[in-house]
């Protein structure tokens, strides 16, 4: 009899566990778990907690996550990135990109605080299935970092997943950059000292510097000119097997200056090859290469350093 009761108890426990497991699976099947990133108590790093939702629409998930990022906790153990003194003006999601526009107060943050805030927001929202890249603007103008460079498109992996001291690391580097000569028919190089956020690659920084154009404090000759539309945005810059893949938005195709197409292409290529770890460059526009730049240069090929276009009359 005791054995019979024992078997009944075991059977009941088995069924109970089975029902519990089934209920858990059903709950998980109808929900999605996201990590909500906040700035930690010491304001030295980002931390996260789990947030579950049954919402399926990407647009509605965006609204939910933005609300979580602005929610002030009962215990001030961390700081919500969207509960600061600045305000989010608008958000717009289209074709894998998310644009977030902030008011002027966003610029009043300290350097480390801004980086941590941006990291928390980007890492949270980049989990949304339809979001591939995120861009910050302030009153409609592209966000720039402490060195004045345009931050550009970001992803969750744009930020180092570790202590705040790593997130806020800046590197100083001397770059050799190529721009157009006065006639727009050749290349002239300048040396530029740059302080850049090490969360982004130096290769990306090179491209950003080329887009920004010559500066008054450049070390080198004075007769240098921009080679491309200054409103061009960098989508991504990656290196694989010595090839640097530079993905730009469609504004790149709209030339603003009287510059030969070859000058633009090789200003980018030669500047990147100067880094030493790049042998060739592949330029893409919105991820596409089946494009003829200025109707004369096919982007379906990779480009190598071109010495024929360089004006060697420059001095250093």
The parts where pLDDT drops under 50 for at least 5 residues are: 1-27, 162-166
Total of helices: 6
Beta strands, count:
15
- What structural class do the secondary elements suggest? alpha+beta
Mean pLDDT: 82
Radius of gyration from the alpha-carbon trace, in angstroms: 25 Å
Brief characterization of the structure:
This protein is of the alpha+beta class. It is built from 6 helices and 15 strands. Helix 6 (261-273) links the parallel strand 12 (243-248) and strand 13.
List keywords for this structure.
disordered N terminus; about 325 residues; elongated; alpha+beta; three-stranded antiparallel beta sheet; four-stranded mixed beta sheet
Structure description:
The structure is a single chain. The chain has helices at residues 2-29, 58-69, 111-125, 164-167, 202-212, 261-273, and strands at residues 32-40, 46-53, 78-79, 88-94, 97-102, 133-138, 141-142, 170-180, 187-197, 219-220, 234-240, 243-248, 280-285, 292-293, 297-298. With 316 residues, the protein is an alpha+beta fold. The strands form 5 sheets. The chain has a 4-stranded mixed β-sheet, with no helix packed on it. A 3-stranded antiparallel β-sheet has the order 2-1-3. The radius of gyration is 25 Å and the shape is elongated.
């Amino acid at each position: 009899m005791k054995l019979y009761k024992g078997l009944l108890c075991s059977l009941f426990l088995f069924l109970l566990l089975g029902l519990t497991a089934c209920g858990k699976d059903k709950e998980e099947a109808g929900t999605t778990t996201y990590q909500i990133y906040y700035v930690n108590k010491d304001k030295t790093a980002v931390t996260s907690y789990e947030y579950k939702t049954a919402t399926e629409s990407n647009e509605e998930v965006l609204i939910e996550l933005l609300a979580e990022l602005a929610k002030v906790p009962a215990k001030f153990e961390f700081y919500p990135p969207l509960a600061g003194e600045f305000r989010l003006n608008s958000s717009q999601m289209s074709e894998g990109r998310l644009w977030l526009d902030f008011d002027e107060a966003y610029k009043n943050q300290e350097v480390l605080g801004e980086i941590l805030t941006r990291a928390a927001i980007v890492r949270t929202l980049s989990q949304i299935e339809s979001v591939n890249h995120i861009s910050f603007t302030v009153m409609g103008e592209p966000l720039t970092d402490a060195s004045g460079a345009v931050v550009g498109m970001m992803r969750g992996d744009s930020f180092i997943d570790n202590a705040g001291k790593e997130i806020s690391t800046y590197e100083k580097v001397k770059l050799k950059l190529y721009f157009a000569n006065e006639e727009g028919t050749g290349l002239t190089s300048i040396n530029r000292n740059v302080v850049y956020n090490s969360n982004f690659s130096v290769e990306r920084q090179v491209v950003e510097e080329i887009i920004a154009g010559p500066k008054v404090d450049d070390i080198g000759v004075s007769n240098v000119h921009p080679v491309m539309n200054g409103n061009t945005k960098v989508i991504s810059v990656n290196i694989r097997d010595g090839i640097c893949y530079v993905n730009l938005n469609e504004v790149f195709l709209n030339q603003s200056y009287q510059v030969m197409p070859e000058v633009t292409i090789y200003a980018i290529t030669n500047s990147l090859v100067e880094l030493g770890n790049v042998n060739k460059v592949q330029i893409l526009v919105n991820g596409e290469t089946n494009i003829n730049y200025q109707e004369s240069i096919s982007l379906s090929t990779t480009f190598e350093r071109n010495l024929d276009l360089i004006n060697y009359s420059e001095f250093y």
